């Protein structure tokens, strides 16, 4: 009779810190598991800030490379995800600064105008057709455009807390600001978004 | 509680923490209910933005390959640079006393054929992992030994 391995309630998920420890012991596979766990979340996060898919992939890879190179310095003071998000945030901010320095106008919103169903910077005015109800997908596109228009400090706090689903505490740790500051920024961002999206909510 | 206090309490997340006064105001104030309902919709829509893009299939392999390349790149570049210096040193030895190598000399004036040649140095630019540049000032005659440790190469000894 052959034996059967049952993956059930007793199967423990290896924690992030344990995976980092295994990687430091020489297991490359452990790091692959970590990447698998965070890669899509992280690329979505970075893309939400820099709004350029190809650059987001590059920056996401850079974030993991930094983690790999500095894994031995990870003290476990914060959660691994917090550390990873902080590295990704710094890389994304650097990218925005680089663009500012180059004075490069970023065309994603203009390009969006030529892609049906994609968010655009000039939102259609639905006040003139009140009978039209936007579906969730369309509303999400409008929301994305409104988030893009927020200033950086509100955008980062809002994306981390509401899009990525981090707690207020984690968001504060990633951004290295106080809990009160994060709560205030997230709320302020929501109120600004509400104002921008008043006609579709 | 008035509407202003209610909205600032939302910033403090007091409703989610079960504050009764906040919940009571929400029950009795239609305007604040509208605000609260909009904010809940924004939160719900925001969550739908979280999974819009995915990494390409070869993402992890590329990360690991890049790390392996970076690990190797610096020592390999150093070895290549040092090999170049050795070649240059051999050339310098061959043409010892010829003034055309003066551009690499940093000591003394004109070489005197009667005396032993003064030490000759060459500056070698080596690119680091962050694309930073290091200028290595190396003597004309060096000895290079290569040791192998795991997958990386290190220069074990550089001397006159």
Keywords, please?
heterodimer; A: 201 residues; mainly alpha; 9 helices; 65% helix; disordered N terminus; B: 160 residues; alpha+beta; two-stranded antiparallel sheet; 4 helices; 4 strands; 18% strand; rod-shaped
Describe what you observe in this structure.
The complex is a heterodimer of chains A (about 200) and B (about 160). The model of chain A is unreliable at about 1-10 and about 110-120 (pLDDT under 50). Helices cover about 65% and strands about 0% of the residues of chain A. With about 200 residues, chain A is an all-alpha fold. In chain A, α3 crosses α4 (about 80-100). Chain B has helices at about 5-10, 20-30, 30-45, 60-95, and strands at about 120-125, 135-140, 145-150, 150-160. In chain B, α2 (about 20-30) packs across α3. In chain B, the strands form two sheets. Chain B has a two-stranded antiparallel ribbon. The longest helix of chain B is centred in the middle third of the chain and has 36 residues, at about 60-95. The N and C termini of chain B lie far apart (about 85 Å). In chain B, about 45% of the residues lie in helices and about 20% in strands. Chain B is α+β, with helices and mostly antiparallel strands. At the A-B interface, α2, α3, α6, α7 and α9 of A face α1, α3 and α4 of B.
